[in-house]
UniProtKB/TrEMBL annotation:
InterPro entries: TR_Rrf2-type_CS (IPR030489), Tscrpt_reg_Rrf2 (IPR000944), WH-like_DNA-bd_sf (IPR036388), WH_DNA-bd_sf (IPR036390)
Keyword Transmembrane helix: no
Protein name: Rrf2 family transcriptional regulator
Keyword annotations: DNA-binding
NCBIfam families for this protein: rrf2_super (TIGR00738)
Stored PROSITE patterns: HTH_RRF2_1, HTH_RRF2_2
Record lineage: Bacteria, Pseudomonadati, Pseudomonadota, Gammaproteobacteria, Moraxellales
Length: 165
């Protein structure tokens, strides 16, 4: 099984969005998510387009625009996020077709099929609300906020030092 960056980044971005919307009432911009999570804005735009089409996020245009979650935290499971961006958690080399060994089923087909089903069920049973309650999530979020704030203050200082008085 291989979960690409597309699935990982989508889950990370929605968890970031969930954290921000639980702390503030305004929309969250993709540029803010990009800074905190070190994901390019153009990549986030592609992901959020798919997430919006699947009804997981809503967007607001304008100066105060950005994104909100379209459903309550306990109604958005990790598997839905992964599926929304066209990812799979299938551990089977044949992707379930049963043609993994020269056009026929391999000896371990049932093993990988069962593993795929377990992974999918596990991810269906984990919601954004549960992720927010995980042990390290809040401390990592706090560290990311401090890091971004420090970067912004460094840029502001260097810009003001370079400006003629």
């Amino acid at each position: 099984m291989r979960l690409t960056t597309r699935g990982r980044y989508a889950v990370t971005a929605l968890l970031d969005l969930a954290l921000q919307t639980s702390q503030q009432d305004s929309a969250v911009s993709l540029s803010d998510i990009a800074k905190r999570q070190s994901i390019s804005i153009s990549y986030l735009e592609q992901l959020f387009s798919k997430l919006r089409k699947r009804g997981l996020v809503t967007s607001i245009r304008g100066a105060a625009g950005g994104y909100h979650l379209a459903k309550p935290l306990d109604e958005i499971d990790v598997m839905s996020i992964i599926s929304a961006v066209d990812e799979s958690v299938n551990a089977m080399q044949c992707e379930g077709r049963g043609d993994c060994q020269g056009g026929t089923m391999c000896l371990t087909h049932d093993l990988w099929c069962a593993l795929s089903n377990h992974i999918e069920q596990y991810l269906k049973n984990i919601t954004l609300a549960q992720l927010l309650d995980m042990e390290n999530v809040q401390s990592i979020s706090d560290r990311q906020h401090l890091s971004v704030a420090k970067d912004i203050s460094t840029i502001t200082l260097s810009t003001s030092e370079a400006s003629p008085a």
